[in-house]
Automatic annotation (TrEMBL):
It comes from Actinacidiphila oryziradicis. This is Dihydrofolate reductase. Residues 7-186 form the Bacterial bifunctional deaminase-reductase C-terminal domain. It comes from the Bacteria. InterPro entries: DHFR-like_dom_sf, RibDG_C, Riboflavin_Biosynth_HTPR. Pfam families: RibD_C. One of its GO terms (biological process) is riboflavin biosynthetic process. GO terms for molecular function: 5-amino-6-(5-phosphoribosylamino)uracil reductase activity.
Length: 209
């Protein structure tokens, strides 16, 4: 299986709290819901839909797992609840314990890179990472992420947690495809090229899941 990131980001790289005002207020972030005004953009819906309907499941960090599944499962008549519950979910955490609260969830802990590498050797379609900034920043230097589908919004926030932080690279990406939607969002598909060299065993993976 490949591992593919699907995320919304601003022009200045912020990925924090795109969906709603209370989604992620860490560090006093007050701009939550910045992507919601373009929620009706059909091109974005189609791009995400094509990927997620053929997905083999989700690879998520603890915070995203608890927030996304908690929000959708506690929202009455939510159309995404059954699809999310039925999909396989691999949850990276060194603090959670089994059994996990949502159906079809598997806990990955301990040697996370080895566990993720084993998942990649499993036959199937793509596994998708949504949100999960700490997880992305830990796996990318090890060459474990195959592709990024980023919805880049025409917006600068000037504050917030960013997808690519200091110390992330250097990693060179190849642009595989790009589309501009009617609302000015650029849907871009990037692939790391060439793959970064595997990190040493004592690499600090920042496992703050």
């Amino acid at each position: 299986m490949r591992i593919v990131v699907i995320n919304h980001v601003t022009l200045d790289g912020v990925m924090q709290g795109p969906g709603r005002s209370d989604e992620d207020t860490r560090d006093g972030f007050a701009h939550g819901g910045w992507a919601a005004e373009r929620a009706g953009d059909d091109a974005i819906t189609r791009a995400w839909g094509r990927r997620l309907t053929a997905s083999s499941g989700y690879l998520l960090g603890r915070r995203t797992y608890q927030d996304v599944l908690g929000h959708w499962n506690n929202t009455p008549d939510n159309p995404f609840r059954d699809a999310l519950n039925n999909a396989p979910k691999y949850v990276v955490s060194n603090t959670l314990t089994e059994p996990l609260p949502w159906p079809n969830s598997t806990l990955l802990s301990g040697d996370i890179p080895a566990a993720v590498a084993e998942l990649k050797r499993t036959p199937g379609n793509d596994l998708h990472i949504m949100g999960s900034g700490a997880l992305i920043q830990s796996l990318s230097p090890l060459g474990l992420i195959d592709e990024y589908l980023l919805c880049i919004h025409p917006l600068v926030l000037g504050a917030g947690r960013r997808l690519f932080t200091n110390g992330f690279g250097p990693i060179t990406f190849t642009l595989a495809d790009a589309t501009t939607t009617a609302t000015g969002v650029i849907i871009a598909i990037y692939r790391p090229h060439p793959r970064p060299e595997p990190a040493s065993e004592d690499n600090d993976l920042r496992l703050e899941y």
